[in-house]
Design goal:
Layout: H1 3-17, H2 21-29, E1 38-41, E2 48-51, H3 56-63, H4 65-89, H5 95-108, H6 121-131, H7 133-150, H8 153-172, H9 175-191, H10 193-204, H11 212-216, H12 220-231
Antiparallel strand pairs: 1-2
Helix pairs in contact: 1-4, 1-5, 2-4, 3-4, 4-5, 4-6, 5-6, 5-9, 6-7, 7-8, 8-9
């Protein structure tokens, strides 16, 4: 691996990933809206969840699911394109893995926006679709199903990423791919600390955290997972 090409791959991934489609679209559909602090109010107005990331979830809560879905797809595309380009240019070297990880870092901590961005799930799957489309589909289905079975929101949203670690080991036996999967999970956990602290604060105060079904419906991805759970009879409640 050439250090100079690896540097270019990291820089390309980061600076492209740092571009915020959320902020761009928000200026069009919700001008003047501060997306850095969004409060989700659950049923009855008794349960709340603070969304501190600037991403498709925050925009969906302000402007609707269709806008949030379009934003999420664009966030995937911005990582997919450079990752695929480096994979085609250098198929024998893992520069494309560097692009994908750097793109996720740029999405979460964008230099253009005071290092305040999203949480990275869309960025992960954008890169993964260029690296291993089958892995993207398999883990994106099995991970949420496992999360629904144990009724854990974190596993439902991020279980697919966790499964990437054994998936790449069994599929490639290449530690470079395994390291890529481990890096994705470590970065996502670090980026999610604000939400984890919020959840722990709610529990310390003795308040009831938003119900599992409610948490799933805070964003377009979660609503899709909710419908999948209802279809598979893993969730019985009706959608909101």
């Amino acid at each position: 691996m050439e250090p100079s090409i690896a540097f270019v791959a990291a820089a390309a991934g980061y600076f492209i990933g740092a571009f915020s489609f959320t902020r761009l679209i928000a200026r069009i559909v919700a001008p003047g809206t501060d997306l850095s602090h969004t409060t989700y109010v659950a049923k009855g107005g008794q349960q709340t969840l603070e969304v501190t990331s600037v991403n498709a979830t925050a925009l969906a809560l302000r402007a609707g699911s269709k806008v949030g879905l379009a934003t999420g797809l664009l966030d995937m595309l911005k990582i997919f394109v450079p990752t695929l380009a480096f994979r085609l240019l250098y198929p024998q070297e893992p520069y494309f893995l560097i692009v994908a990880v750097a793109g996720m870092v740029g999405h979460i901590w964008p230099v253009y926006s005071r290092f305040k961005g999203g949480r990275g799930i869309s960025a992960v799957y954008g890169g993964l679709l260029a690296i291993d489309p089958l892995g993207a589909v398999v883990t994106a289905v099995i991970g949420p199903v496992l999360g629904m079975l144990i009724r854990d929101a974190y596993t439902t949203f991020a279980g697919g990423m966790l499964l990437l670690i054994p998936w790449f080991w069994l599929r490639t036996h290449d530690m470079r791919y395994v390291a890529y999967a481990v890096a994705l999970n470590a970065i996502f956990l670090l980026a999610s600390m604000a939400e984890i602290r919020e959840y722990l604060r709610i529990r310390r105060e003795g308040r009831e955290a938003p119900a599992y079904e409610e948490m799933l419906q805070t964003n377009p991805m979660g609503k899709g997972l909710f419908r999948m759970g209802v279809f598979l009879h893993l969730i019985r409640e009706k959608p909101r």
